[in-house]
Amino acid sequence: MTKIKVLVVDDSLLFRRTIVDGISKDPHIEVVAIASDPYEARDQIIKYRPDVMTLDIEMPKMNGIEFLKRLMAQYPLPTIMVSAVDSKVFEALVYGAVDFVVKSNIASSASLDDFINELIGKIKIASTACVTIRPPIEKHSNNIDTTSLSANSNPSSTIGYATNDVTGKIPSKSSSITSTKKSSVDIIVLGASTGGTEATEKVTSKLPRDLPPLLIVQHMPPVFTKMYAERLSRNSKLTIKESESGDILQSGYGYVAPGDHHIKIIKNENQYVIKCFKSDKVNGHMPSVDVLFESAASLFGSNALAVILTGMGNDGALGMKLLHDQGAYTITQDESTSVVYGMPKQAFLLGAADKQSQIEDIPYQIIRQCNKH
User: Fold this and answer.
1) Which of 186, 219, 233, 324 is the catalytic position?
2) Domain-located, residue 44
3) pLDDT on residue 161
4) Is 193 annotated as catalytic?
5) Is residue 219 annotated as a catalytic residue, yes or no?
6) Which residue out of 26, 56, 247, 315 is catalytically annotated?
7) Which helix (H) or strand (E) holds 101?
8) Which of 207, 292, 316, 343 has the highest CB neighbour count under 10 A?
9) Domain CATH for 348
10) Of 193, 243, 288, 295, which one is the catalytic site residue?
11) What SS3 class is residue 264?
C-alpha cells in the first residue's frame, strides 16, 4: 500500500519533532519533509509533492493563514491546521483547510496520545479529499509567489517573491435566486462535515429570503459555530444564527447547531421550537445530522426537504432514508464537487436521495422544490 506523504510545517522545533515522531508510528504515513516557515514549506512542496500538509498558524515571515490563501490559489494541497483554538483557525477553514487539530499539552501523555491519534485520523481523511483551486487573493507586501506550485509546473522551477494577485469576491446578497412561492415544504434540514464550511455557504448565499426555516448541522467545535453562523448570515439574504433552545422556527431564518449540542425540532402548542441538548455522540458526532433529520421526519414527514453535503462518514444517511421513505424530497451533493464523498455517498447508496447534484445546482434544486404546490 502506498504511504501518505506528509509535510509538517511548524516554527517550533519541539512541536515538529512531536508531530513527526507521533504520526510516523502509523504504517500508512510517511513524513517526507518538515519546514519551519512558509517560505521553506513552499520549497519542500516543490521538491517532495506531499499528499497532505500539517500547518501551524503563528509563524515567522508569514503566518499560516496568508500562506494557505496563496497556496490554494495555485496548488490546492489538502491541509490540516494544527494550532490553538481561535478565530484564525476558523478563518483557515474558510480559506480551504480540510480540517484542524488543537495543539495539545505535550507534557501530558494522555492528551498527547489523543492529539496524535486525532491528527493521524484527519491526515488519512485529508489524503482522500478533493480540494480545488481557490480564487486568487490580494497582493501582500510579504508575499510568496506560488505560481510554480501549479499542477503542471516543473518542480525545479525558480520561484520569485512577488505576485499580481487580485482579491477574490464573496458572493453578494444581490446574487440570490428569485424568491419562492408558498409550497408544501415547511422545513429544510441540511447536514455537512469535512469541506462543508464552504459548501454550505455556497448554498445559503444563493437562497432567497422567503424560504421555510433552514436548520443546519455542520460538524464543528462550539467555539466556531457562532462565528460560522454570523459569516453565513452576512453573505445570505437569510438571517442565520447559532441555534438556542427555545428558538421558534421562522421563515427566512437559518439555525446552525451549536458545536457541542445535538439539536432537534419539537412542537410546543402551535409552534415549532428548537431544542439543544447534550447526550452521547451519534455516529461519532455531537451535533449529529441524524438526530436533526429524525426529528424532522417525526414532525414534518413529506413536508420536509433534506440536504446532505460533503463529509466523512455516514452521519445523516439513516435520517435521510427515514425522511425519503416518508415522502420528503432529498438531495445529496455529488462526488465531483465533494471535498470528501462520504456522507452523501452513504445516503445515496441507501437509496435515500431523490436527487444527486453538483454543489452549484443545489440552491436551484431547493428553490424548484419549494416552488411546487
Assistant:
1) 219
2) yes
3) 23
4) yes
5) yes
6) 315
7) strand 99-102
8) 316
9) 3.40.50.180
10) 193
11) strand
Is the bond preceding residue 221 a cis peptide, omega within 30 degrees?
Answer: no
Q: What is the pLDDT of residues 243-295, one digit of tens each?
A: 999 999 999 999 999 999 999 999 998 899 999 999 999 999 999 999 999 99
- Provide the domain limits for residue 346: 173-371
Query: Which three cell numbers, joined as nine digits, stand for 353?
Result: 436521495
Phi, psi of 173 (to 5 degrees): -65, -25
Mean pLDDT of the chain: 86
Task: Give CA–CA dist 331/68, Å, rounded.
Answer: 31
In a domain, 240, yes or no: yes
Instruction: Name the nearest CA neighbour of 170 among 194, 147, 202.
Output: 202
Q: How confident is the model at residue 109 (pLDDT cuts 50, 70, 90)?
A: low
End residue of a domain, out of 149, 181, 203:
149
The residue that leads in pLDDT, 367 or 84, is 367
Give CA–CA dist 266/248, Å, rounded.
Answer: 10
pLDDT in tens, 36-65: 999 999 999 999 999 999 999 988 889 999
261 is catalytic: no
CATH code of 141's domain: 3.40.50.2300
Cell of 107: 507534557
DSSP letter for 77, please. -
